[in-house]
Design a protein that fits this description.
Layout: H1 2-33, E1 42-54, E2 65-76, E3 80-89, E4 92-104, E5 109-114, E6 127-133, E7 138-143, E8 154-163, H2 166-174
Antiparallel strand pairs: 1-2, 1-8, 2-3, 3-4, 4-5, 5-6, 6-7, 7-8
């Protein structure tokens, strides 16, 4: 009698356990198949970047200057963005509007470029690499502009972009 009760319980519980494992495996496969593209960045992101610059304007005796930037970038989900920014360059404050383009690889890495031709003062970075986290709710950034004769400053700039309203954007994406 006890043996048959255990068999009935096992017969009832086993399908539940098996279905749980199947659902879990299915979710893992679905997550593995989700790839990134430009549509993952859509909506308004708060940005916060910090860094330094040396040899400003090519002068080798220029001290290191601390840099910080905050602002809002709005991504359209199609490879373009616009935004406003406040930039502190060694205590000098600049405010400007900017626009640019971005691309996203299937592994959730990508690049971003600022259109610096229409900004005064010039945007503190023109190119960067990005890594997209948490389904597009957060983006890490590092500047990738290289030191050249035309741009002799050694610059280090990195930071994070965070989706300002994840719930609204998630709902908008679902519709």
């Amino acid at each position: 009698m006890v043996h048959s009760t255990w068999l009935r319980m096992a017969a009832a519980v086993f399908p539940l356990l098996a279905s749980g494992f199947l659902v879990s495996a299915s979710l893992r496969n679905t997550q593995a198949q989700n790839v990134c593209d430009a549509t993952i960045l859509k909506g308004s992101y708060a940005i916060s970047f910090t860094g330094t610059a040396t040899n400003v304007g090519g002068a080798s005796n220029t001290p290191t200057v601390w840099r910080a930037e905050i602002g809002i970038l709005t991504f359209d989900g199609a490879g373009n963005y616009t935004g406003t920014d406040t930039y502190n360059y060694g205590g000098a404050i600049f405010r400007y509007k900017l626009s640019g383009t971005y691309s996203v690889n299937s592994d959730c890495t990508g690049s971003i470029s600022a259109n610096t031709s229409n900004t005064t003062p010039v945007v503190p970075w023109a190119n960067g690499d990005i890594v997209i986290l948490s389904g597009g709710h957060e983006v890490n950034f590092v500047q990738t502009d290289v030191v050249t004769d035309a741009n002799p400053s050694a610059q280090v700039f990195s930071g994070v972009m965070k989706l300002r309203s994840p719930v609204a954007t998630t709902l908008r994406r679902a519709l």
